[in-house]
Amino acid sequence: MKTNRKGVNFFAVSVVFSIVAILIFVSLIFLSEVLNAKFEKVQHSIETANSCEHASNIIKDVSNELSEKAYFFVMTHNPVYMEEYVNEKFNTKQRELAEEKIESLSNVPESTLMRLKVALNQASSLGYIELYAMKLISLSLDYDNIPSQVKNQYIKKEHRSLSKAEQQEVAQQFIFDQGYLDAKKRVNNNCASIIDEIETNVKVRLNNESKSLRRHLLVLDIIIGILFIFSTIFSLCIWNLVLRPLGSHVHSIKNKESLKVIGSRELRYLAETYNEVHEYDALTKIYNRRAFDEICNKSQEAKNSIGLLLVDLDNFKTINDTYGHVNGDYVLQAVASLLSTFFKAEGDIARIGGDEFAVVLSSYSVITPDFMTNRIELINKELRDLHEVKNCSISAGLAYSTKGYSRELYENADKALYFIKEHGKSGLHVWNEIL
């Protein structure tokens, strides 16, 4: 039997699906890394914005706090405010630290840094006025324990010669001077502008990053969709090419039936190979007794009209004893080949015993006894002309049924075969009774 090489090669399908799965997996890993990088950029932008806003608020708040301490000292003459002022301005230095923080951040626009410089310069101008006012108050009160930063503050000559009351009045004028108030307002406005600029810059960057994220998320959705379709197709392939055929094969094996040639190329080949062993005689390459029984059972279920031809090799024991078993096998192969040549178009040929053969004719209505007799004579002529073995022949018995195969049909064909065996052999006898 020549096996069929048609069908889908599941091994090749598995290789292709594995390669595609690896590519999808690599794409997902790459895309996840890209998305992670995008999220980190967004997070960094937000952190930068928060740091800049915090630093700007520190500059503004510290400037206001220093102004308040200077104001309270000038108005109340409480040296605690002066000490707190000096400690913040010259020791804690929160404004300077805030400036360093902003300058250390990446992606801070140059315009933001310039505004920061302006705000700090304006704050320094305020500091000069505040220190000057606190020095005048210290002189008017004759404080001994004056911080060096205030003590070393230069005082104009015309202010040194003023009376204590006049010095206090001038100090208050500095604190309430419109120029001082305008400078303080500019510091606050610049800090607010810095925050606004940071927010605008962050919004632009976040908008750009969000657009990029949406594009990459769309790609991710597409890849996930492809993965879903791919998984569905692969599952269907496994079901149709492997699981369903395997289920059918298991059912057939349990019921001692031939396997259906379905599924992948590998399973088709397996089914054909199994069927060849299961259905075909190893020596003659025609159907064996098991396959013959299946054919008869199907005919019995279908109840179709058939003919049954039983064939027996004449004097087979003598052939084996005279020419040996090798030549005996050769004769069996020759008989199977001749039966296939002359009857394959009319039905199924099987070896049902050692030297016994059967032909199940698909319809008796078109096959006349004369036609069958002529075919048996032609086969016997071919057998007599064999070079390896002399005087070979077959005997055959034929019976018909309009109701499909039955045990009685087999017995009638066997009776016909026995009749020809008893009356000279090497021919055909047809059982007259049709079931």
Radius of gyration: 55 Å
CA-CA gap between termini: 34 Å
What is the string of helix and strand elements? HHHHHHHHHHEHHEEHEHE
Number of strands: 5
Can you summarize the main beta sheet?
5 strands, mixed
How much of the sequence is in beta strands? 5-15%
Q: Total number of helical segments?
A: 14
| Percentage of residues in helical conformation | over 70%
Unreliable sequence segments: none
Protein structure class: alpha+beta
Reading side by side through the largest sheet, how are the strands ordered? 2-3-1-4-5
- Shape type: rod-shaped
Mean pLDDT: 82
Protein described:
With 435 residues, this protein is α+β, with helices and mostly antiparallel strands. The protein is 71% helix and 8% strand. A five-stranded mixed sheet has the order 2-3-1-4-5, sandwiched between helices. Helix 14 links the parallel strand 4 and strand 5. The two termini are 34 Å apart. The mean pLDDT is 82.
Chain-wise SSE layout:
Layout (H helix, E strand, L loop, with lengths): L9 H67 L2 H14 L1 H11 L5 H32 L6 H4 L5 H4 L3 H13 L1 H77 L10 H15 L9 H14 L3 E8 L2 H8 L1 H19 L3 E5 L4 E6 L7 H16 L9 E8 L5 H16 L5 E7 L1
Parallel strand pairs: 4-5
Antiparallel strand pairs: 1-3, 1-4, 2-3
Summed up:
The protein has 435 residues and is of the alpha+beta class. It has helices at residues 10-76, 79-92, 94-104, 110-141, 148-151, 157-160, 164-176, 178-254, 265-279, 289-302, 316-323, 325-343, 369-384, 407-422; strands at 306-313, 347-351, 356-361, 394-401, 428-434.
